[in-house]
Amino acid sequence: MSLLPGERVDVLASRNIKIIQSSAVFSFSLDAVLLAKFAQVKRHSRVVDLAAGNGAVGLFLARDTDQQVTMVELQPRLADMAKRSVALNQLQNVTVQVGDLADATQMVAKDSVDIVTCNPPYFKVSSQSITNPNDHLALARHELTTDFATVARVSADLLKYQGKAFYVHRPERLAELLTTLTVVGLAPKRLQFIHPREDREANMVLIEAIKAGRPNGIRIMPPLIVHEADGTYSSSVRRLLNGD
What we know:
alpha/beta
């Protein structure tokens, strides 16, 4: 397995997963680890990860199931990194599809998936938007080629009856996100807010929604605090990263 210039191999110790990263192209961040932990993947769950990037979420979930995990990524460079990470970890149940997530039902049959995960671009694009000059990072962070409405619609198309979707996003868009999910028939069921420190507002939210679920009964899970007051990771986050 060869690395391209600027690439490195990092290890998520808690999952015993190696992943090819590049600070110049794409590196997963804590939100991918949190999403993988939040997703309720069972032993026989068929999984699709949309907007997969370099494959972090799909790789972290791969050993939780004996069924197929399909990662869908638009950017060929990132998809190539994901494919090489799949090979590096000798994962036989993971495939990477290069293409627009809007076309995911051409890659995976409708109504056939138990779990959909997505760490989508967080930021809307307007005439006032300042996007990253690095195209790889700009596409990952800004809704340049997709939006949450598309993510939600495709998730609903892929999922079986009572299948579950899991997302990580920004709290300031929560009202819009929940409405968007409801419109496509995904009932929001569980939320967890992520705070950078105990005394700071949440800067991430994890969302679970169920296809054709009842339209009430949202559970709010205890918040997760990322850093202690001295800037070190909290014990919860250390366990997620290191398995300590």
